Amino acid sequence: MRDPVPHSVPVRDHSSQEIADRLGRGREAQAHWRAYSLSQRVRALRAFHEFLRKDRERLISVIREETGKPRAEIEAMELDAAEMILKFFTRGAHRILRDRAVPRPWVLFNKRAYVRYAPRGLVGLVTPWNMPYLIPFGDAVPALLSGNAVVIKPSEWTTKTVLYLEDRFNACGLFPEGLLQVCVGGGTVGKAVVEGVDMVLFTGSTATGRKIARAAAERLIPAVLELGGKHPMIVAKDAPMKRASKAAVWGRFANSGQICVGVERIFVERPAYREFCEALETELKALRQNADDGYGTDLGRLIFPGQLAVFERHAADAAEKGARVVGGKVLDREGLVAEPTIVFDATGDMLCMREETFGPLLAVSPVDNIDATVRALNDESFGLAASVWTRDLRRGEALAVSMQSGLVGVNDLLTHYAVCALPFGGMKQSGLGRRHSDDGLRMFCEQQSVIVHEFPANQPEFWWFPYARFKSAILSWLLRAS
Ligand code: NAD
Predict the structure, then answer these.
(1) DSSP-derived 3-state class of residue 15
(2) Sorting pLDDT into bands at 50, 70 and 90, what band is 11?
(3) Is residue 268 scored above 90 in pLDDT?
(4) How far is 406 from 251, CA to CA, in rounded Å?
């Protein structure tokens, strides 16, 4: 089985001079862009999206060539999901970013106080390879809407898609030149971008996230970090088995397992374990994996060659430690095709239960006590996504919200990204800050607090100099009564 399209190879890194030129151009463009009204920005971004849509087939083929994803996944998870983000933010922009009057103490009744949302300047988006269009475009939209310029540093393994986006952005004639630019290369280029921007939104591994946090702290710029995860799926004995087993297989093998919120391991209450495992195996065997260009395949290949080694290491380690591994083979090393794999009877000492696999391998384990399982999971370091499966919705919801995880679902998974009104991000080592939601637009802004003294125009405040005992007493009374 061979994907006909060769996977991407890293391109030449941009030089320090090329990066500096891009950062400088971005700042010049932002000075023009920030003067556009919000309505103008909304109109320009919508028009750009229409322009991009005219070339939808071309965009699909660029992503397909770079990632080997099935067409259905490119359409739903890259293009249509990005459109939902654009619609959410362009529809909500005026409501979310309008000046916000705030209450004030009555002693200050003659003043107006409000919060204003001002752009931060130049925003750096450092992005991974698993969603080469959705993540850069989906995050560029709110950054641009709020009046910033954007520099994207895509993964060195998926640059073509983002370069195509940049090309279309320049070609549409709707924006100041240099408003959205791409810096290509590996970690050194990412580092240089972080050193030259006013805010960074990073999506990638926890290890790199830590480096970004340190660099941002040094410069005192805001850093929003969207990092790795280890989605535990908790299946109670009364779970709706058909839905749960199908969800598990889709939740793991969609995007060939390369989704940060994808299911990594399943804990099944022991009385339901056998039935659930049988259903899983049936679903696994029904998966289609081939090089079909249309809708005739369910699984693509891996995108980043290094992920193949993780897959093999986790499968071999599980087999060695006594699990029953169904699949586990690399089908085409050159083409990066790995067999969808389930590790049955996984135990806590196995790598696939502890480290992020981020590939087509799912671990399943029986448990006797769900509450104890949740307590143990809460002691772990990741906290991105989790789900609970039961017909008892009240219990499911109570369990789900007790999990230290930024995104929780009851009988549901992988839909948080599509509900853009929900903040998206992780707790603990899975992230810092959230994308999406109203706050996910405001985070690209400096909050400016404004007070305007309205009347009487020429009257000094009585608490100014000179101090006096009676003035202090009145002030004290007024402040306490406010
Ligand atoms: P990665 O951390 O290796 O790389 C991410 C980006 O950071 C790349 O563009 C890379 O070139 C750049 N980079 C590397 N070192 C850098 C440095 N010192 N300074 C600045 N930039 C640097 O991650 P990856 O392998 O591309 O992506 C996979 C990871 O991303 C997984 O852990 C996955 O869970 C995570 N992810 C998280 C989310 C989320 O929303 N939480 C979404 C998708 C992927």
Answers:
(1) coil
(2) confident
(3) yes
(4) 17
Q: What is the three-class DSSP state of 437?
A: helix
Q: How far is CA 370 from CA 160, 269, 309, 389, in A?
A: 45, 7, 32, 11
Q: Is the CB of 208 under 6 A from ligand 1?
A: yes
Ligand 1 contact, 269 CB (< 6 A): no
**Distance from C-alpha of 427 to C-alpha of 72, rounded to nearest angstrom:** 31
Residue % of the chain over a pLDDT of 70:
98
Which strands form 445-453's sheet, in the order they lie side by side? 100-101, 111-119, 445-453
- Give the Cα separation of 154 and 126 in Å (integer): 6
Give the span between the Cα atoms of 239 and 479, in whole angstroms: 57
To the query of whether residue 226 is one of the catalytic residues in this protein, the response is yes
Rounded to the nearest 5°, which phi and psi values hold at 398? Answer: -65, -45
Residue 453 pLDDT: 98
> pLDDT tens across 374-421, in order?
999 999 999 999 999 999 999 999 999 999 999 999 999 999 999 999
Q: Are 378 and 400 in contact (CB under 8 A)?
A: no
CA nearest ligand 1 atom 19, residue: 191
pLDDT of 5 strictly over 50: no
CA of 202 from ligand 1 middle (Å) equals 7
CA dist 419 to 130, 262, 339, 351, Å? 20, 16, 31, 32
Judged by DSSP in three states, 185 sits in coil
> In 345-459, where do the E strands start and end?
361-367, 382-383, 385-389, 407-410, 427-428, 431-432, 445-453
Ligand 1 pocket, residue 356 CB under 6 Å = yes
Which residue from 134, 155, 224 has its CB within 8 A of the most atoms of ligand 1, so it is best to mutate?
155
H or E element in which residue 42 lies? helix 38-53
What rounded mean pLDDT belongs to the chain?
Answer: 96
Half-sphere exposure of 463 (CA within 13 A, CB side): 10
pLDDT band at 7 (very low <50, low <70, confident <90, very high): low
DSSP state letters, 328-370: --EEETTTTEE--EEEET--TTSHHHHS---SSEEEEEEES-H
* CB-ligand 1 contact for 226 (6 Å cutoff): yes
Pairwise CA distance, residues 181 & 23, whole Å = 9
